[in-house]
Amino acid sequence: MAANCSSLTPSPMALSGGSATSSATPRLLSLSPTTTARPSSLSFHFLSSSSSVAASLKCLKLSHQKRTKLYSSGGDFGAVVTTKCFASNPDQLKSAREDIKELLKTTYCHPIMVRLGWHDAGTYNKNIEEWPQRGGANGSLRFEVEQKHAANAGLVNALKLLQPIKDKYATITYADLFQLASATAIEEAGGPKIPMKYGRVDVSTPDQCPEEGRLPDAGPPSPASHLRDVFYRMGLNDKEIVALSGAHTLGRSRPERSGWGKPETKYTKEGPGAPGGQSWTEKWLKFDNSYFKDIKERRDEDLLVLPTDAALFDDPSFKVFAEKYAEDEKAFFDDYAEAHAKLSNLGAKFDPTEGFSINDEPAAAAVPEKFVAAKYSSGKRELSDNMKQKIRAEYEAVGGSPDKPLQSNYFLNIIIVIAVLALLTSLLGN
Ligand code: HEM
User: Fold this and answer.
1) What are the pLDDT digits (tens) for 231-244?
2) What is the whole-number distance in angstroms between the Cα of residue 36 and the centre of ligand 1?
3) CA–CA gap between residue 18 and residue 26 (Å, rounded)
4) CB of 249 closer than 6 A to ligand 1?
5) Is 340 tagged catalytic?
6) Is the model's pTM score more than 0.85?
7) 306 CA distance to ligand 1 centroid (A)?
């Protein structure tokens, strides 16, 4: 399995004493399962090949390793265990993202990267519990058997573009790379920032690929109910179906691949990238809400509307969202970003189980609340969150906020001044 490099670094004492480590050649022990555990529940095996040792040594250097102690029933085992690397190395993912940006700039492959990520994830079946039988974002689309599924026609080109990046970064998985390429393509095309997480584990053999037929058809007899059959099976809802369909704001359909679309149009005959095909939108390398506007208006024969695209304005439930996205790009971006992140996680097995972000800020970080509490602060140390909450509550009780000074009540001030003047006058009069 790619980049799965659980390893145990024996202490010098452990190396010299035990039979398992008495060989003249220093060896690394690998340990599974990979969480902190007692030796009785562990199975040890030696990494004999030099490449495995090299991989483990590389892994040992990685900054994201978690280190923990291994305990025997008799106490300290005398060894520090490096529990394991995550499925992908975060630093390598970040570097790969820069390479993907470069690739996008030079080849204009944004659309096919988005389609690649979607087709790897979109095989998910929520009714199957076992991984990888349930399908989803597990890198299975790297295998020829799945690339040959009719729905995946042409995606081999996306694989070819990404392979050099995969070769360059040994400790990232295909599953992560596909989703990274897709999310980066959306963002680089001007779309929303997608709250992605990483750490997807790859399937390891072609027989773990899903069977053909899990992805949607563009021209089924009843498009709306077909879309629901397929996307509900993935655990997605009507809003998510419509938002995700908005990815067709990018790219083109090519008759020689899918059978849909014109060989070329005025918008595609000169590229950029390989010329030809029929796009859904005029500016098919820019991510915006023009897909919804163009389908609604049907203003140009040169723009594609698949039967499943048309269903978004024909079906009453889909239509609510399609109309909204045609009017309000921000609403589309917000819903798209959320739905894309959800799609990218479908069926995935994460290592670590919660996944990890490669953005400097946390995946879905809330904007930090501005807080000014100079009056209450000693100036030497930050107030606790509890104290901030109490102060905020006090302010709010009198209709104010710690972020801005309380509004003066001029009327009350005037009455007080009049009252004081009246009191003084009466005192002086007496
Ligand atoms: C709703 C059901 C969907 C159907 C029936 C459908 C169908 C298709 C078809 C027929 C093509 C043309 C492929 C070719 O000839 O090269 C295509 C392309 C594309 N699809 Fe979809 N799709 C669907 C949903 C999605 C979703 C959910 C996404 C992404 C989130 C997506 C992203 C794309 C992109 C970006 C392209 C352009 C690829 C390129 O230019 O190379 N599609 N789709």
Assistant:
1) 999 999 999 999 99
2) 44
3) 13
4) no
5) no
6) no
7) 10
